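Quick one: structure for this chain?
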Amino acid sequence: QNLEKLAASVNLKFQFRAVVVESLENLHKSMLELREGEALAVNSMLQLHCLVKESRGALNSLLQTIHGLRPKIFTVVEQEANHNGPFFLRRFSEALHYYSSIFDCLEVTLPRCSRRVKIEQFHYGEQIRNIVSCEGG
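Got it. Here's what it folds into:
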């Protein structure tokens, strides 16, 4: 809704269509309902690292699919940490530094409340368990 309001304020036609797939590997151009001459923006938030742990081929395949779509803009937000290594001590150290920063940010920006506890436990807790016990997040 915020993007629609912003676009309207500068007299720009805008329509948002989210595409939900079980796995990014299943993304196909036909799912996007693109129209001729339409500009496409692709936003990937914290998804590509999941493909790396599956296989580098899966990541390459997705990036080729996105490249084939010829988006006008492609934004990527990913964590800058090596959580997929085979050595426990390195994974643990990377996770410790990375999540310490995340929790410091949460401490400053979000008051201690049930919403924050849920974010910490269910979202970040699961990621930390995967990194420590499953060789990657």
